[in-house]
Amino acid sequence: MVRRVELRRIDEEGLATLLTVAVADAAPEEVMPPVTGPPGWTTERREAFLAWHRARRPGLGGSLGESTYAVLHDREVVGSARLARTDRRDVLETGLWLARAQRGRGIGTAALRALLREAARAGARAVVADTTTHNTAALTALRRNGAVLTTGTDAGSGTDTGTSSGTDTGSDRDSGRDAANDGGNDSGGPGEKTGERNGAVHAELPLRRTG
């Protein structure tokens, strides 16, 4: 049962908790950009994970134009989400990942809904995300939030917004997640551009004006 799902900006204490969740119940390629070295959560990958989120702490108004959030379900950190500026002034891209134990429960759908509210408050008129045709959980979350989907070689905004364990719609600045997958087996990793992946799906979610 999905209870209260909320987003929280990531402070240092929250970042430590998020890393603990990622290490315990997600693969590095699901939640962060690739780091060379042996597989698994090496010291270098843990440090890179922390640095990635710290660099985005200034938010959408910062030099990177990106904000990250902890996803909370019933006050428990279960994953992470992000919003990032694009080359379209009033369009943001989004993505999120969830710990494996939290997937397939509808949390991704609710978290994406919360991200859309954040984007609207930031003045965006639309949010974009990219995933793949086999990522049924991401596609379900996107459809339930009113996404217009485009498939095939023309799909994709040139950024990887893939959904992962959790859903990301990332770009090369992606932390490593797919568009809106809340239960899938797609890691939504950061290494690929959407146009390079078979079965690419691009989603655009129009936002309702607030106020």
Give your account of this protein's structure.
- The structure is a single chain.
- The protein is α+β, with helices and mostly antiparallel strands.
- The protein is 26% helix and 23% strand.
- Strands 1-2-3-4-5-7-6 form a seven-stranded mixed sheet, with helices on both faces.
- A hairpin with a 2-residue loop joins strand 2 and strand 3.
- The chain is globular and about 40 Å long.
Task: Looking at this protein, list some descriptive labels.
protein N-terminal-serine acetyltransferase activity, alpha+beta, 5 helices, protein-N-terminal-alanine acetyltransferase activity, 211 residues, Protein N-acetyltransferase, RimJ/RimL family, 26% helix, GNAT_dom, single chain, transferase, Aminopeptidase, globular
